[in-house]
Hints:
The chain is an alpha/beta fold. It has 20 helices and 29 strands. The strands form six sheets. It has a nine-stranded mixed sheet. Strands 8-7-9-10-6-11 form a six-stranded parallel sheet, sandwiched between helices. α4 packs across α5 (120-137) and α8 (164-177) packs parallel to α10 (220-235). Residues 570-576 and 593-606 have low confidence and may be disordered. This is DNA/RNA helicase domain-containing protein. One of its GO terms (molecular function) is helicase activity.
Amino acid sequence: MSHSPMVEIQRYPFSRDALNDLRDNAFAAGNWPLVYLLSDEKHRRAYIGETTDTLTRMSTHLKHDEKQLLTAVHLITSEYFNKSATLDVESLLIKYMAADGKYTLLNGNLGLADHNYYQRGALYEEVFREVWNRLIAKGVVSRTLDHLDNSDVFKYSPYKSLSFDQRQGLLTIMHELLNPGVKSIVVEGGAGTGKSVLAIFLFKLLHSEEHQINLKEFSEEEAEINSLLSSLKAAMPKPKMALVVPMTSFRTTLKKAFRHVSGLSPDMVISPSELTKQHYDIVLVDESHRLRKRKNLGAYFGSFDKACAALGMDKHTCCEVDWVCQQAGKAIFFYDEGQSIKPSDADVEVFQRLKAAKGSVTHRLLSQFRVKAGQPYVEFVDKLLNGRVEDGVVFTARNYEFEVFDSLKDLVRTINEKEEQVGLSRLIAGYSWPWASKKDSEAYDIVIDDVQLRWNSTNTDWINKEGSHREVGCIHTTQGYDLNYAGIIFGEEIRYDPESQSIVIDKGNYHDRNGGQGIKDPAELKQYILNIYRTIMLRGIRGTFVYACDDALRKYLKQHIPVHATHVEQSEATNVVELEPYVNAVPLFDLQAAAGDFSDLQIAEQKDWVAAPDGVRIREDMFACRVVGESMNRVIPNGALCLFRTDRGGTRNGRTVLVECIDSVDAEFDSRYTVKVYESFKVEDEHGWRHTRIELKPNSHDDSFKTLELTDEEALGYRVVGEFVCLIDE
């Protein structure tokens, strides 16, 4: 299937001598708006920009201390580009390339354009997708956009466009950091208001050099931020900072995100107890409503007491909020009273005193960013859980899927379908069942009718664990995370009383030992449990599905939430004067004739050589072959010569791979080899990790090509032999 290209990407050496080559590019010479990418393959650094004066901009970059060390420039051009489009493509490239992780970006994180313009959705989303696929083809990036959209590295990247609400919060924080009379800043906001994004953005901003901050002309706020940043740099040239995250799972996730950001390090993300090691100029606390006091701490009692002793505090009267205040010159708390979910959380009164104290200021975030249904949905959930929805009111939103289920089996099936379609779809339940599978991996924790489910098999980064969509998460493994779809199971601990027309709590069915122990006031326990359900009902970006074990509660929910329809089963050659092996050339294999073992490419009987593309570091595990067919034509044109490296193990998810079909022949490829995008789904049992399903996905403009789904047993007939690096010719 032919496809008229909307975008062209051309590579040039990045040097003063090579500027003449750029003059031959009609877009560069004609002052067209375009996007460019400067890179250095050896040191894996890159810079992304846009311009209407390419030659002048390149000359300026060649005078820059860091950028003049880069070695290649890719010009991204299109007849569809205008100034708004190139600003948008530039911003998207910064966001996605930071998440892709191949290069460390030299870009600052301010000034990312986020504005509407003509045909942005209708045309330019497809233009950017083509830009990205062509960059995959050229080996500049490796993972697909769909894969990156669901990655935490992307979600928690500091390369974000801030909303007006977030920019105002940023300005408030920066002003108060310069105010010698202010020690504590409390940023309040409900679930999904962008507290974590703002915290990470601020953290990266304060660790960026002024010349790295790329300000645009879109808003007066950014000029003010630049001025404030200069003042902060003068007052604190290299501030010692930490991001405190109380929850172990979310802390692990943010450490991974920091690992991929230039200037940041996983060591900057710490637990509250690590505050005892040193004093900091600035401490940011994300999810600060989960800072703890000495109550129901379980195994953490010892660490808590040890930290109190190290800080000279009374363990019976202090809490982790006090640790932060003592160990920080300036403390910034990102806080939501409604997400305090257990008795060990610091009391609301602690934060009330903190906000009222001399030297404290408070700022509130209002805009809802996570849930596509926005603030009306957030307000509805609060009214629903507190029995304040008016009779006859049913919540609907055009861009949000919100349904109540009569069948748990249908809910589980729907979440599995959403997982296959868009990923990041998980089941979450109230803590209404003991964790039997923790000690017996064969046991089921949640058994309702013919549905058997297990709790999360890990407490650390469960959301991103292979096969987690087949398990059930709890508040402790999901708080702080984004999902595409959340399937919420209201357990036996929460019921509805038709006589009082209110939700009631059955403490005997609440099995979070540290969550309910020592609570004598039923109203206090009810508030914690309602906070739990409110929090988990605000996880889903695209939709939330609910099921209630209690018949009366389910009937109540059906009065105000659209009812899910009963499930019905559906059928389903470069010209080179002299080629030097592994210097400027790699071995070329004919996959139509190949029958040998790719595990040792060096001993093949027949070997030709082909020139490698400019700018690629040649390794002896690389080889070339020609890819036939249309199933990958968004990246690889039919008949294109491609560069691969032999499979090195590790995660392949989202990458384009060459697969050997051991027991079959790929009809399109007419050989035992096929090229597809790889995704695997795993579970862990007593024998270790094993695949439950592998998907080999096409990446084509032709929708008739289908994903090949392999069970664990079927996967034995396939073997990944190479990972796509880039096109050699097009």
